[in-house]
Every structure is written in C-alpha cells, then in structure tokens.
Amino acid sequence: MPSRSTYRRGKARGGWFSAAVEDGAASYRRFHARVMEAGQVMRQVMERLDAVEGFAVETLEGLIFTVKGLVHPPHRLIAYLRFMPDPEGDRKRGSTAYRRVYRFEEQREILQGRFPIYIAYDPIFGFEVQTVPGQFTQRIYDPCFRLAEILEKGAKDPLEESSLAFANLLKDAAGIPMSSLGVSGSVLVGLHRPGSDVDLAVYGDMESRAAHGALERILDSGRGPARRLDRAELAALHASHRTDTPLAFSDFIRLQSRKTNEGYFGGIPYFIRFIKGKGEGEERYGDTSYEPLGKATIRFRVTDDADAIFTPCRYSVEDVLFLDRAGEADLREVVSFRGRFSDQARTGEPATARGSLERVVPREGKVHHRLAVGGDAGDYLLSEGRAVSK
Predict the structure, then answer these.
(1) Which helix (H) or strand (E) holds 237?
(2) What is the mean pLDDT of each run of 10 residues along the chain (390 residues)?
(3) CB-based contacts of 271: which residues, under 8 Å, 6+ apart?
(4) Is 23 strand, coil or helix?
(5) What is each CA distance from 199 to 18, 184, 240, 269, 361, in whole angstroms?
(6) CA–CA separation, 213 and 174 (whole Å)
(7) Is the same domain home to 187 and 82?
(8) Crossing angle for the helix pair 231-241 and 249-256, nearest 10 degrees?
(9) Which strand (E) or helix (H) includes residue 308?
C-alpha cells in the first residue's frame, strides 16, 4: 500500500531563488546546481517512497505534478505538470494564485522554455518524459493520507465533505478498509474550487475489484447519491474529450454508459481511479525496456480484460490486424496510462485502437509487441461491443 506520510522540505525559498528563475534558462540551470547538495536529504526520502498513480509532487519552484503509473526510475518520479503559480490564476492556496495546465502541449512548452530540468529522455521507456528528480522535490502528496486528514480534522468545504461521504459509501458497500481509499485531483493539493470534481483513488487489487463491483451495483440500482451520466452530461464530456480522442458521439455514449469510474455523486461530477497496490504490479523499473516504432491502427479481439478497470489498464488481445502499416505477428496487448481508456473493452469483444506501437524487450522471456494508447492526440480505443466466441 502507499505510504501514509507526506514529506516537506523545510528550507524557505529566498530572493536568490526568485532571481535565478527570472534570469532564464541559463540561470535556472545554475540555480539547480546550487540545490544539488541541499537536495540530498530529499533524494534519500525519494529512495524510500512508494509514490504511484494518484499521488502528486510539488517542486522547489511550486510546480505541482501528478504522478503517472506504477513504474519509476531511481530517484525520479514520472509525473505530468498539473498546476503552476500564476498571479492571474483562478485557484488560490494561502497567498499564492495557481492555474491548472490542461493540455499536454502546453505542459511541454512551459517545461521546455522555463523548467527544462523536468523533461528527460528515459532509456527504459524509450522516449522523453516529464519527470521530477528527488532532489528538486519540496513535497509529496499522498491521497490516502489526505483522506485520513479530512476524516480526522473534518471537511472544510462542500467538496471535501462530498469526497469523504463518497469514500465512506465505497468503504461500506465494498467492505474494504478506509486506508485503501484516497482523494486525488485538486482536493489532494488544496487547489479545488467551486465546480471542481470529486476525485477518488482505490489502492489494491482486491480492494479495487470489490469497490468497482459495489459501485456498479449501486449505479445499476438507480438509488442513492451516485448515478451515471445523463445524455446532456455525456455530450459535455464527449466535447471535452473529442479534441484528443476522436470517437463518434454514439460510440462514446455506448461505451461510457457502461462504465463505473465516472459519474455524479450528490450532484458533483466524480472520477475514480482503481490502482494496484505496492507489490501487486508484475513489473519493476528495468525489468523490461520498450522501443517505440511509430503510430499504428489495429483491429483485434480482446481475450482478457482482467486488468481493464485499473489505471494503468491492460487488455490481452489476439487476431490482430494492422490497418495502416506492416504488421507484427506477436502483438499481445493494448495498454494505456490514461484513466479514460480504462474499462473500455470487454473480453470477447472486437475492437479498434490507435496508439504507439512498441517493441517489448524483457530482461527474461520472449520479445513481443504492444500498442500504447493515449500518449498523443488522435489515439483511441473503440470496442464494437459484441462479444465474439472463438
């Protein structure tokens, strides 16, 4: 399970820090060189930390990243920029205003231009990633600790109250411990505002499956504070997705209407991530390397959806047909690190997907291929929804 501690860096940021940032990229690199020695304590903390999907990390400059996936390099977290200080931002914590950075392209532009230390080529994954080195970390935010804090101290506003109520509903309905539940998103880092969503995380294989099944029964019953999206809400969600994920509205409705991870709770939109706990993931950093081979569109049949509900999600596939390039006979799986592609296809269903073709090279075992969906605009995963027996 994730740790139950947050870690703060005690050193205040003084004038030399602000001057270094304002001087531009060259001074910024000199600034980072100066904090290397001071950052050794935080690096030691990071070596012991089991931060995974759903956590957040704040840098020395006040940038807030969300942690992605379960596998991370030594002394670094793969994480994507989510909030940054901005005097004109519409969110406030203490005396500092922040804005949310929504699109990947904007995240990359900001980091490349102003904070290049947070972009690095990863030799295991085979491409550049946004990543936070341990020595430049000010604080780690743990979703389970944050929910426990709300439970202990009491909710400070309606969104915290709804987050706690939803967590209690899942705990009771699924019979899982409260310690397996966490609050993520803007509530995790104290940057929520009126109109923000309820974002929860469930940690652990068994706990996630129990919570998913319990929530599905609640939604199917049509009773209680949790419900599925109605048509107008689905239309709004489709509009927000379609710039990145090109699915027809009819297909989007068909697939989204059977999911449990997104809906409304007490009149507030919710999103839930189901995440495997520590020791439950089969892979460790360096066990397998990945070689990107470009984009591909494939048609296939899902043979196993056992890990489809999780973030990251995985679908075992067969009968693969490449639609726009030469094929690879040993493509075995479709994966995604984005929550929107979780629970998108079921065992036996034919489906089509576009993503990045990767050669998977394990340290032990046979080389094969996979399709990773969600890394670029235009990626999609579309189930045809009719199970086909073999």
Answers:
(1) helix 231-241
(2) 39 37 48 46 46 95 96 94 97 96 93 96 95 95 97 96 98 97 97 95 97 97 94 93 91 95 96 88 88 97 97 97 92 96 97 97 94 94 78
(3) 185, 197, 198, 199, 200, 261, 262, 339
(4) coil
(5) 33, 5, 17, 9, 35
(6) 8
(7) no
(8) 110
(9) none
Alpha-carbon dihedral of residues 162, 166, 167, 168, nearest 10 degrees?
A: 100
Residue among 256, 218, 241 nearest 345 (CA) = 256
In angstroms, rounded to a whole number, what is the distance separating the alpha carbons of residues 305 and 314? 7
Give the per-residue pLDDT at 390: 59
- Report whether 134 contacts 76 (CB < 8 A): yes
Confidence (pLDDT) at 68: 95
Domain that holds residue 327: 288-383
How is residue 218 written in tokens? Answer: 């609640």
Select from 84, 111, 141 the last residue of a domain. Answer: 141
If 0-12 CB within 10 Å is exposed, 13-18 middle and 19+ buried, where does residue 221 land?
Answer: exposed
DSSP result, 56-71: EEEETTS-EEEE-SS-
Cis peptide before 312 (omega within 30 of 0): yes
- Residue at a domain's end among 141, 160, 187: 141
Residue whose token pair is 């990071």 = 46
Q: How many CB atoms neighbour CB 266 within 10 A? A: 16
Confidence at residue 151, expressed as pLDDT on a 0 to 100 scale: 96
99 Cβ contact list (under 8 Å, min separation 6): 83, 84, 86, 88, 89, 90, 91
Pair 20, 128 in one domain: yes
pLDDT recorded at residue 39:
44
Alpha carbons 80 and 130: distance in angstroms, whole number = 6
CATH number of the structural domain spanning residue 306: 2.40.50.140
Find out whether 270 and 301 touch, Cβ atoms under 8 Å.
Answer: no
Assess whether 13 and 54 both reside in one domain.
yes
Strand pairing partners for 202?
181, 274
Q: Which amino acid is at 213?
A: G
Q: How many domains does the chain have?
A: 3
SS3 call for 250: helix
Asked if 358 and 291 touch (Cβ cutoff 8 Å), the reply is yes
